[in-house]
Design goal:
The protein contains 15 helices and nine strands. By secondary structure, it is of the alpha/beta class. It binds calcium ion.
């Protein structure tokens, strides 16, 4: 309004005449803004700002929260141009994470999205799984079956190398929802692929919150700390959504009921998964609701304004011992090392659930 009012004034206006013309317009504008902010219902950022657009690959280890994240992403085709899903061993072994990714694709009715299976085990450490949280099938609260559409031919690591090499510079965003083994292998074999990457958005790590698999470590990093080290040193812009964030973006009975009440199958599926999945964390941590970790990555991609972070130096402890798998976050910059991560520490929980619910409502 300011610049338009000034531009409308004729160039020949004297400074005082110009001020006399512009001032009432500004004053009126200010009054209108104040009035609107007082009387209008508070709009969430999800409604207020246009969503971001990404050419996207999602690397995932489904995983109950991964399945919700995948449905969320596949329901947003105008903003997230999903090139493929790549799977990795993590919450459950690779055959099951790959089957669950295919289930999510079937539930979202997105047969156009190819799924490549990747690393069956971490780089160095003994494999660990999280069947205590995600159930022996890797998805809680729903019946699983063998989907008819198969995996794509070829390995996820080869797919990443081939695709990122062929991509325009800084064009592909990689969302990473599990242990970071696939990208670490790709970066080791073909360091030049960083050229094609625009950004990595990772669910992983913990600092202020403490860990969820040991007192210091978050599961995705703990499951393959050597891979996380390679990824964090890649030089690609990285945003991390750690437990510091996800343990403050919690379900409530009302939030789950809204998903269930959408009236479509996807809303019921997400509500059924959450009802079973959140029980452990609510009890174990004494939380009023459960986190939906990986789904915050999709919300961040669509609506970064829902989140607040700080650019900091983050390193991974990969030494045997109490700190194995810990993300060491230099929040106050005391080490004077260059920032390699945009560490997301806060988010708008209601805005997150509003956006998730709105997108899930679009699915079958
Ligand atoms: Ca995951």
């Amino acid at each position: 309004m300011h610049s338009r009012a000034a531009a409308a004034a004729t160039p020949s206006s004297s400074p005082s005449r110009l001020a006399a013309m512009v001032f009432p317009v500004l004053l009126l504008g200010l009054v209108a803004l104040l009035t609107a902010s007082l009387i209008a219902p508070k709009a969430h950022a999800a409604d207020a700002t246009p969503a971001s657009t990404h050419t996207l690959i999602i690397d995932t280890d489904p995983g109950a929260d991964d399945v919700i994240a995948l449905l969320f992403a596949m329901a947003s085709p105008e903003h997230l141009k999903i090139q493929a899903l790549t799977t990795v061993a993590g919450n459950v072994p690779l055959a099951k994470t790959s089957r669950n990714a295919r289930l999510a694709r079937e539930w979202a009715k997105r047969p156009d999205i190819a799924i490549y299976a990747g690393a069956p085990r971490p780089l160095v450490r003994t494999p660990i799984y999280a069947a205590d949280i995600h159930g022996s099938e890797g998805i809680t609260g729903v019946k699983v079956h063998e989907p008819s559409q198969p995996l794509a031919d070829g390995n996820a690591v080869d797919y990443l190398i081939r695709t990122l090499r062929a991509a325009p510079e800084k064009s592909v965003t990689l969302a990473m929802l599990g242990p970071e083994t696939n990208l670490a292998l790709a970066l080791t074999q073909a360091p030049d692929i960083t050229r094609g990457l625009r950004e990595l958005v990772l669910m992983g790590g913990a600092h202020f919150n403490g860990g969820n698999i040991t007192p210091t470590a978050e599961f995705n990093v703990f499951a393959d700390p050597h891979a996380a080290e390679i990824v964090l040193k890649s030089g690609v812009p990285i945003t991390m959504l750690p437990l510091d964030l996800t343990h403050n973006v919690l379900t409530s009975p009302e939030r789950i009921a809204r998903l269930r009440g959408l009236g479509n199958q996807a809303g019921k599926t997400v509500a059924d998964i959450l009802d079973a999945y959140v029980q452990h964390d609510m009890q174990y941590y004494g939380l009023p609701g459960g986190p939906v970790h990986d789904a915050t990555v999709v919300a961040y991609l669509l609506q970064p304004s829902l989140f607040r972070g700080r650019k900091v130096n983050v390193e991974v402890d990969s030494r045997e011992g109490l700190g194995f798998g810990q993300t060491v976050v230099d929040w106050y910059g005391g080490l004077k090392k260059p920032a390699n991560v945009n560490w997301i520490a806060e988010g708008d929980a209601q805005g997150f659930f509003d956006l998730l619910t709105q997108r899930i409502s679009r699915l079958p």
